[in-house]
Design brief:
By secondary structure, this protein is of the alpha/beta class. It contains 25 helices and 9 strands. Bound molecules: guanosine-5'-diphosphate (GDP).
Length: 722
């Protein structure tokens, strides 16, 4: 009337999802018996369908936790939900299964998934059956006890099975000990196991199967249970499955198993009624028949549940208090959801992105590009001027006050044009866009691989993936655009007074830097050698050596040119080779390097002087005399123009698109489950959510329990009152 069992069964499944601790377990009926004692037949008679795995080889390898839920027939017929169906709660993908053949097949597969070397596993299979024909019960089917060990069922398997059964037959569970009538009860492993844990037989029900295989008077004696009394008694049944349903038929699923209840009931009616009613009639006070068994089980479970109510309420109360305390201490009662964590993470990501984009203001980008272009300028100067011995001559020419730019040798004018076009045609569009895009890529990658994305590899991958895609898409466009816009500079660069002065100043700075660099390198060599005197000596030596080498090359060329063959090595007179003992090969290499550096230094200093000269200061019409200043101005113009277009075509687009892509590709693209999974990837969040969920579940269970306790009180009150 109170539907106590039903409500507690619901509570039981919630508690199971909270944790499996013993204190939180509500009583369940555990079915034990030896193999072939008729265990499956009894369970199937209760459920009304064939659904358990069948076969020669031991087929129950895992406990099957079976929850039967009675559905009112009216509710089933009025709605679209099927009348009878099974659910595997741990396999939500399977949904409601209306075919018992499918359930049987699934159970078989789940059992066979236990590796043969393990043989049995204590990881239970959960199965719910909803039907108007089942009582509210929780039953646990366990592997049958092995009587005789055989080749493929070794001795240790016997122990494993009884160990597994022992775990389940503890209090407060009710033991359903299945024994076949045609086997002496003294040999029943089920009764033996039950007696070990329940010596007074207060929570054991005996089921005597195969009553049809013994003489009715003998069967009645067994069921009366005089030899091995059980407080809850024995129920005798006949539930051999009707011969039409072959053992494997339903596994193959080619025919739906018939409803077995009707057939069983008819057989039992036949067997226990008629002639045999003189042994089994009502007045004989023996419990027989599957129907009686069902009612008995419901009564016993209800009683057991009801007496567990207080204990379980107290246990849940304690668990709840602990969970609430932890939640307060650890999280100050702050509630979170997967969605809120997701939203916070995305907000933080966007905020960090915004913060970092400050590195990409126009002046910042311009100065990066200038750096890159200045490098290009220095390379061009090196190639065209510093390596050209006539550059010294240009410096001297500049000192001649009377000489004007127009008088200057066309050699120098041409050189300047070459230098300028080398710079403007060096792929500025590609290089400058590439530089900025690379900066953006590094920025995104650093955000996407930093906390908390270390916990979220797949989302992190998504972020880098789509941002790289945006960059790839924008890069080509931007590079072309930039290249297009600097096109005029490839033909002509106009320079005004102000630009000239700025460019000249920068060129001077660059030279100072370059001179410092060379000085530093030279110092390094000097330190290795031990002093400036030694360095000068070495430079002088290498100088002579190189001069001699040069002469020898020339001579050789003329000799071999004349005779057409190489002459023998001859040590010429005056060769500095004599000094070979003075310097090691490594020092000679250093020396050659030092000679280069010192030549470079004197040239750089010369050109620095030229940059400072009155001629260079006087203005842009002196460009041919001061290519360094001119190129600095060109570099500046290129940087300015590139920045402008990179800003419009790449940066602004990226800054606009990135946050929107985050929303559409992450925030709105993930479904609830994915968001939940995402949140739980972060161990801190997982802990928080787990505790919160546990507390919530315990609270709801506590509310249900409390109302049951109240109902029970009221029921008692009214029953004692009347
Ligand atoms: P389990 O191994 O304990 O699950 O036993 P089963 O339920 O598979 O039954 C073993 C065999 O006994 C099967 O061949 C059943 O058909 C048969 N059997 C089960 N119950 C009865 C019964 O009440 N009477 C008779 N004659 N045979 C039965």
């Amino acid at each position: 009337l109170l539907q106590l069992t039903r409500k507690l069964i619901e509570i039981r499944s919630v508690l199971l999802s909270v944790d499996q601790s013993e204190a939180l377990k509500l009583p369940s009926i555990v079915v034990i018996g030896s193999q072939s004692s008729g265990k499956s037949s009894v369970l199937e008679a209760i459920v009304g369908h064939e659904f358990l795995p069948k076969g020669d080889n031991m087929v129950t390898r895992r406990p099957i936790e079976l929850t039967l839920i009675n559905t009112p027939p009216s509710a089933a017929s009025s709605s679209s939900t099927p009348a009878e169906y099974g659910v595997f709660p741990n396999m939500p993908g399977m949904g409601k299964i209306t075919s018992f053949a499918t359930i049987q097949k699934t159970l078989t597969d789940l059992n066979l998934s236990v590796p043969p070397e393990l043989a049995v596993s204590d990881d239970p299979i959960h199965l719910q059956i909803h039907s108007p024909h089942v009582p509210d019960l929780t039953l646990i089917d366990l592997p049958g006890y092995i009587q005789i060990s055989s080749m493929d069922q070794p001795e240790e398997l016997k122990d494993k099975i009884s160990g597994l059964c022992d775990k389940y037959i503890r209090e407060p569970n009710i033991i359903l000990a299945v024994c076949a009538a045609d086997v002496d009860l003294a040999n029943s492993p089920a009764l033996r196991a039950s007696r070990r844990v329940d010596p007074l037989g207060t929570r054991t029900i005996g089921v005597v199967t195969k009553m049809d295989l013994v003489k009715p008077e003998h069967g009645a004696t067994i069921v009366r249970g005089e030899r091995y009394p059980l407080h809850l008694g024995y129920v005798g049944v006949v539930c051999k499955a009707p011969p039409t349903s072959g053992v494997f038929k339903s596994i193959r699923g080619d025919r739906e198993s018939p409803n077995v209840t009707g057939a069983v009931l008819r057989r039992e009616e036949e067997f226990f009624g008629g002639e045999n009613s003189k042994y089994f009639g009502r007045d004989k006070k023996v419990m027989v028949g599957t129907d009686t068994l069902r009612r008995r089980l419901m009564d016993v479970l209800e009683t057991s549940m009801s007496s567990s109510l207080h204990g379980i309420t107290n246990a849940v109360q304690l668990e709840l208090e602990e969970a609430s305390y932890q939640f307060k201490v650890q999280y100050n009662d702050r509630r979170i959801t997967s969605e809120s964590y997701m939203a916070e993470t995305i907000d933080a990501l966007k905020a960090r992105f915004k913060e970092y984009t400050a590195q990409f203001t126009k002046p910042a980008v311009r100065s990066k590009l200038k750096e890159m272009l200045d490098d290009k300028v220095m390379n061009i100067l090196e190639k065209l001027y510093w390596d050209d011995p006539r550059t010294i001559e240009l410096t001297k020419l500049a000192e001649d006050r009377k000489l004007t730019s127009e008088d200057l040798d066309s050699y120098w004018k041409y050189k300047l044009e070459t230098a300028s076009s080398l710079l403007t045609k060096s792929g500025v569009g590609r290089d400058s866009t590439g530089l900025v895009a690379e900066g953006l890529r590094q920025l995104i990658d650093s955000i996407a691989t930093g906390e908390p994305f270390t916990f979220h590899p797949s989302v992190s991958e998504r972020i880098t993936e789509f941002s790289h895609a945006i960059l790839r898409e924008r890069m080509g466009l931007t590079a072309d655009q930039v290249e297009n816009c600097i096109k005029p500079y490839k033909y002509e660069v106009e320079v005004d007074e102000r630009e000239w002065n700025v460019g000249r100043d920068r060129a001077e700075d660059k030279f100072t830097e370059e001179i410092k660099r060379c000085d530093y390198k030279l110092k390094e060599i000097q330190n290795r050698l031990g002093g400036s005197r030694k360095l000068n000596g070495l430079i002088k030596h290498v100088g002579e050596l190189e001069k001699w080498e040069e002469e020898r090359r020339k001579r050789r060329f003329s000799v071999s040119g004349a005779s057409g063959q190489d002459g023998d090595e001859v040590v010429e007179e005056g060769a500095p080779v004599l000094d070979a003992y003075k310097y090691s090969p490594a020092q000679i290499i250093d020396g050659r390097h030092a000679l280069l550096l010192s030549n470079r230094l004197s040239l750089l200093k010369l050109r620095q002087q030229a940059l400072k000269s009155r001629r260079c200061r006087s203005g842009p019409d002196q460009s041919a005399f001061c290519p360094e200043a001119f190129l600095a101005v060109v570099a500046d113009k290129l940087a300015y123009t590139s920045t402008m277009f990179i800003n419009i075509e790449l940066l602004e687009q990226f800054f606009y698109q990135f946050p929107r892509e985050i929303d559409s590709r992450i925030l709105y693209d993930l479904n609830r489950e994915e968001i939940a999974r995402f949140a739980r990837e972060n161990p801190k969040i997982k802990q928080h959510l787990d505790l919160q969920e546990r507390k919530d579940k315990l609270e709801s269970v506590m509310r249900s329990l409390q109302s049951l306790v109240n109902l029970q009180k009221d029921a008692k009150g009214s029953s004692t009152g009347t």
